[in-house]
Amino acid sequence: MSFVACDWGTSRLRLRWRGPDGVSREVACDDGAARLAALPGDRAEAFAGALRRARDRLGAPEGLPVVVSGMAGSSIGWRELPYAPLPFALDGSGVIVERIAPGVHLVSGVRGASDMMRGEETQALGWAEQAGDALPSVATLVLPGTHSKHLRVESGAVTAIATFLTGELFEVLGRHSVLRHSTDPGTGAAAGCADDSGDGMAGAFDEGVAASGRMALGAALFQVRVRQVLHGRPAAANRAFLSGLLIGAELRALPGDDTPIVLAAGSGLKDSYTRAAAGCGLGSRWSAIEVDDLCEAGQQRLWRRWSGGGPPA
Fold first, then answer.
1. What are phi and psi for residue 267, nearest 5 degrees?
2. At 160, is the secondary structure helix, strand, or coil?
3. Three-class DSSP category at 77
4. Most buried of 48, 90, 281, 292 (most Cβ within 10 A)?
5. What are phi and psi of 85, to 5 degrees?
6. What is the DSSP letter of 145?
7. Quick check: helix, strand or coil at residue 92?
8. What average pLDDT score do residues 274-282 get?
9. Which residues of 169-183 are buried (b: 16+ CB within 10 A; e: fewer)?
């Protein structure tokens, strides 16, 4: 790679570089955009310093360009860039990129009329890069996380974005709502029984997925509390139920047609989402890929497009 790939998230910063020896080197740290934005002083200097420290740890050659995707281009980032509009071509032709420091090139996000993303567009480019000629003509790309994204892809372009606060809801409800008394053993929830096992957790997760299909989400959420108070279900099982409920509610929002669904996730989320997809009747349309290399692959796709003269100034 003739550049350093940088994925700058809300909570984490990750750099990657693959040298001439073919060995991929990676550095990750907690210098996410939210933490840096909260620091006193000049924000641009804070971001530049964090990148410099991470590059020193990475050991890439001095002067190698850096391509940055993600929240560094947001309102809490290094410099806020305008969003590229939908439809967003997966050949990279619609990308907005700006040189924000010597050798540092920041890729903007993408927006529609009622939704937006920063960072996931580069992952979508990476999916297209890896799929090559096998890229489906029509599909939904699911990118789960704190804010899960569903990207509608048609004829080589992202045409719609839908965002679900699945991961954030799981965290907030499980730690800061009345449901914490049912999901956290330290707050009085039952702390272990026969159900508190691998099979028991899977069963509780499946119950949550099923509940997402027969009850409104607001009512189904209170069942977490009911499970503890009326039925003595342990905290771990209630957390599994909550997870299945939220993921199931997200997946049930997918279009009810025969469009292929491609999940891009790490192993833990891949297993959970694939299990929930089966419970929602989506198994025949479902496939899964690893998300880990997608940002790097997307940036490589862009770099190759720019290779004639480098990134735009």
1. -60, -45
2. strand
3. coil
4. 90
5. -85, 160
6. S
7. coil
8. 98
9. bbeebbeeeebbbbb
Question: For residues 107 and 97, is the Cβ–Cβ distance under 8 A?
Answer: yes
3-state secondary structure of 226: helix
d(CA 56, CA 13): 14
Quote the CA–CA distance of 132 and 122 in Å, as a whole number: 15
pTM > 0.85: yes
- Parallel, antiparallel, or unpaired for β 66-70 and 24-29? unpaired
Q: How far apart are CA 4 and CA 303, in angstroms?
A: 11
Position 226: which residue type? V
153, 159 contact by CB (below 8 A) = yes
Report the C-alpha gap between 93 and 66 in whole angstroms: 19
Q: Summarize pLDDT for 41-50 with one digit per residue, the tens.
A: 999 999 999 9
Using CB atoms within 10 A of its CB, is residue 304 exposed (0-12), middle (13-18) or buried (19+)? Answer: exposed
Query: In 3D, which of 235, 244, 180 has the Cα closest to residue 214?
Result: 244
Q: Look over the chain and give the mean of its residue pLDDT values, rounded to a whole number.
A: 93
Query: Is the bond leading into 260 cis (omega within 30 degrees of zero)?
Result: no
What distance in Å separates the CA atoms of residue 260 and residue 295, rounded to the nearest whole number?
22
CA–CA dist 313, 88 (Å, integer)? 21
Beta bridge partners of 138: 154
Give the chain's radius of gyration (CA, Å): 21
Cα(67)–Cα(104) distance, integer angstroms: 6
Percent of the chain at pLDDT > 70 equals 94
Nearest residue to 160 (alpha-carbon basis) of 62, 54, 254: 254
Q: How far is CA 108 from CA 35, 72, 78, 124, in A?
A: 20, 9, 12, 14
**What pLDDT is attached to residue 187?**
66
- pLDDT tens string 100-125: 999 999 999 999 999 999 999 999 99
- Please give the C-alpha separations between residue 40 and each of 18, 35, 79, 283, in angstroms, as whole numbers: 34, 11, 16, 49
User: What does the DSSP 8-state code read for residue 14?
Assistant: E
